[in-house]
Amino acid sequence: MHYLYIDPGTGSMLFTILIGVAGAGFYAVRNLVMKLRFRLSGGKQEKVSKNKIPIVIFTDSKRYWNLFEPICDEFEKRKTKLVYMTASEDDPAFKKQYQYIECQYTGAGNRTFAKLNLLNAGIVLSSTPGLDVYQWKRSKDVDWYVHIPHAASDITMYRMFGIDYYDAILTTGQYQIDQVRALEAVRKLPAKETCVVGLPYLDIMAKRLEAAPPLPPHERTVLLAPSWGKSAIFSRFGGRIIDALHKTGYHIIVRPHPQSFISEKEQMEKLMQEYPESSWLEWNRDNDNFEVLRRADLLISDFSGVIFDFTLVYDKPVIYTETAYDKAPYDCCWLKDETWTFTVLPKIGMPLREEDLNDMKVRIDQCLEDQHFAEARRQARDEAWQCRGHGAENVAEYLIKKQQQLYS
């Protein structure tokens, strides 16, 4: 009966799709009931209870504080109360001296989800994908879930069903809204509320860069900052790419994705042992990537969102690896059109092929000297980082108006 055999990987994906389709059906029915109740009540939600928190921000990691800090600061400036919930006990938020922002530690692991799944709140804003897919379930006492991306890149590059069960999506550009609509169409989901707000942390990064003093003279510096997973740089090249960079004679900074130290722990430990810090090599794990991006003359990455931090804010060239990106686990596999990321990468940088490892110095020098990438970076900036300078203001405005709309 071998013809009935399904390998574990395919079986797992099929099971995920079946669960997702079933969940989409449930969500559609639930959404219909909610709309019906909304209309029967005269177009307004029931009055908010005394115990209900009006607006909550949830983050699963302190590494997203750069996204949420400007939003919290905006609420503080408006003297509007907000609860910031974080799964990181050492989140930088706890060091802030806020008067109107209450910072809460949700606990580690399942304690976080236990708290979120019973949360009593009006609106929850989060950059965490997978709501109502894995451990994090929609609470019956939360009225509105809002997703905000943490990078100016495709919103379809989350793991499958990453944004399906949010009520609203705040985007960095119109192209992300187009992707949301495409996913809704193919999955027969009700339309979510969408709004282009920009990206608050890029606004702050740009202001910091403008105010920063000029860099002192330094040797040419290359930043290697890959994503994680089977399609990322280290999974494909391993330590060979560090060997190749060593031969350039340039100063090399390696900044792995934080998730690599969780999901690819053995691989990272092996690489750091084989390539310890030295005069030419440093490993960077700073929570704030501002300074390391400022120091680098060129970035080498794959499909990581850091590419767009580097090109859109710092206006510097990139080399990206032509990895065999496996779309199967991600939302983008449902869509016919190529992802925005892989469409724009050839315009703003040079590809890195297997054969280029033999002479990385030539490739790096070519990329740094080629001037035609500058115009492409400008176009990408206009597409992916709209409402520049007003991201936090727009997010706060949306959340406050939505809260008023729900309970007025």
Distance between the termini: 63 Å
CATH homologous superfamily label of the largest domain? 3-Deoxy-D-manno-octulosonic-acid transferase, N-terminal domain
CATH third-level topology of the largest domain: Rossmann fold
What spatial form do the alpha-carbon principal axes imply? Answer: globular
Mean of all residue-level pLDDT scores: 89
Can you identify the CATH class of the largest domain? Alpha Beta
Helical/strand content category: alpha/beta
For the biggest β-sheet, the strand order reads 3-2-1-4-5-6-7
Helix content: 40-55%
Compact overview of the structure:
The chain is an alpha/beta fold and about 400 residues long.
Would you mind describing this structure in some detail?
The protein is an alpha/beta fold and 408 residues long. The chain folds into 2 domains: 16-199 and 388-407, 3-Layer(aba) Sandwich (Rossmann fold), CATH 3.40.50.11720; 206-384, Glycogen Phosphorylase B (Rossmann fold). 41% of the residues lie in helices and 15% in strands. The protein has 15 helices and 13 strands. The chain has helices at 8-40, 65-77, 110-117, 174-187, 200-211, 233-237, 240-246, 260-263, 265-274, 290-295, 306-312, 340-348, 360-369, 373-384, 391-407; strands spanning 53-59, 82-86, 101-105, 121-126, 142-147, 168-171, 193-196, 221-224, 251-254, 281-283, 298-301, 318-321, 349-352. The strands form 2 sheets. Strands 3-2-1-4-5-6-7 form a 7-stranded parallel beta sheet. It has a 6-stranded parallel beta sheet with strand order 10-9-8-11-12-13, sandwiched between helices. Helix 2 (65-77) links the parallel strand 1 and strand 2. Helix 2 crosses helix 5 (200-211). The longest helix has 33 residues, at 8-40. The N and C termini lie far apart (63 Å). Residues 1-12 and 37-45 have low confidence and may be disordered.
